[in-house]
Amino acid sequence: MSTTAASYRVVTCATPRGRAVASAPVPEDAATDPSPVWAIVVAAGTGRRFGGAKQYAALAGRRVVDWSIDAARSVADGVILVVPPEDADADEPAVDAVVAGGASRSESVRNGLAAVPDVAAVVLVHDGARPLAGHGLFRSVVDAVLADADAAVPVVPVVDTVTDVHGEPVDREALRAVQTPQGFRAEVLRRVHAGRPDATDDASLVVAAGGRLRHVHGERWNLKITEPDDLLVAEAVVGAR
Description:
- With 241 residues, the protein is α/β, with parallel strands linked by helices.
- 27% of the residues lie in helices and 23% in strands.
- Strands 3, 6, 7, 8, 9, 12, 13 and 14 form an eight-stranded mixed beta sheet that branches. A two-stranded antiparallel sheet has the order 1-2. A two-stranded antiparallel ribbon has the order 4-5.
- The longest helix is centred in the middle third of the chain and has 13 residues.
- The radius of gyration is 18 Å and the shape is globular.
- The protein starts with 9 loop residues before the first strand and ends with a helix.
């Protein structure tokens, strides 16, 4: 990716270090692309349930986050990596910019969004701990946003029997499990984050603001690494591909 004649803007972000964040350089081809796509890979968690920084755990000879970055790169003109504050100065040659995460997931997304150039038409937000999402899924999400959606979200049916906390059955036909990458029209994502809301899911902010949501088919094995056993499953899936 060329960074010749790159342009920067400096945005003051509420990062834990209180630093200004410069947006990533704009590749020459993205400057002329009518719909540039940028991806934010959120990998700023502490991995409390995993027992450590799961995004850096080894998976088939690479870090978990490296798989996520590569999948995002397969459709994106640029990739922003959001990491724990202590890792913000790390050398990550596979991405266009590294920024410090915040105290919440929403704050981490906002810090990443501040580094996305203004030319971006579509912004993807992907969990760094979802290493098995494939190129086809990323492409489907981008295409849904380019078609007509303000937000596009991959979902899969709920296959288990579900009850509420009182043991009453819940109709699983009306339920869907939500995955990432989630895709957004860039101006819509910036607008819903302008008030600095806090949510575990960016698409819910768009829906609450009256935006158009479109579901795309998720992937059965697009699991999020949360506990050590999840890594064993991911190893088996990668080995079978």
